[in-house]
Amino acid sequence: MSRKKQNSPTLQRQNRLRIIGGRWRGRKLNFPDIPGLRPTPDRLRETLFNWLSPALTEARCLDLFSGSGALGLEALSRGARCATIIDQSSKAVEQLRQNLSDLSCNSAELLQTDALQWLEKLVPGQLEPYDIIFLDPPFNQAMVDPCCQLLEQKLLVSKGAYIYTETEASWSGEAPLTWELHRTKTTGQIASRLFIAHE
Fold first, then answer.
1. What is the pLDDT of residues 41-60, one digit of tens each?
2. pLDDT digits (tens, 9 = 90+) for 94-115
3. Angle in degrees, CA 120, 33, 9, rounded to 5
4. Contacts of 55 (CB under 8 A, 6+ apart)
5. I want to staple 139 with a disulfide (CB 3.0 to 4.6 A). Which of 86, 121, 159, 168 is the partner?
């Protein structure tokens, strides 16, 4: 029992994330203990949002496979106009709803659904295109390629949009031809890529 008590503070720290910049800078938020849920590390998130800084103000964002919500919430904190935040896990969505309430944020649409199925069901042109898209699915489940194609097919990518993919380092898929690779970074087993969509 003493070992459990000694370990519990560490476990609690591991289940909290920190907003790095913007109006909620320094705010710490909980996320649930779910297998495979891995918030984008602080240092990588800071790099990503430095890359995105020219496009964040008033951006319309889509956070697929949101998990902890680290990317969507960071974007909103830094000036994004709105965000659609999607995750399949009821635990993740419940905590995200609480976090949005704690932040007094009313500019996020939170959906509990399978992100790939959500994309498949959309009618092309049904939604206004997004300016920034975060695509961070579970690793090694071959979800990145179909999501990229569906984003294009469903007309969800605005001209000049930024699309961020976070994958296992071994991912060798291809993005749509209209997406130009703008930035890339590999940290351990994580490969981060930022694309810009052109016509």
1. 788 889 999 999 989 999 99
2. 999 999 999 999 999 999 999 9
3. 155
4. 131, 132, 160, 162
5. 168
The DSSP bridge partners found for residue 174 are none
Other Cβ atoms closer than 10 A to 20: 19
Per DSSP (E only), the strands in the chain are 16-18, 28-30, 60-64, 82-87, 108-112, 130-135, 157-168, 179-187, 190-197
Identify the CA nearest to 101 among candidates 73, 82, 129. 73
CATH top class, domain 2-197:
alpha beta
60-64 β-sheet, strand order: 108-112, 82-87, 60-64, 130-135, 157-168, 190-197, 179-187
Alpha-carbon distance 28 to 136, whole Å? 21
> Any bridge partners for residue 109, and if so which?
84
Task: Break the chain into its structural domains and give their ranges.
Answer: 2-197
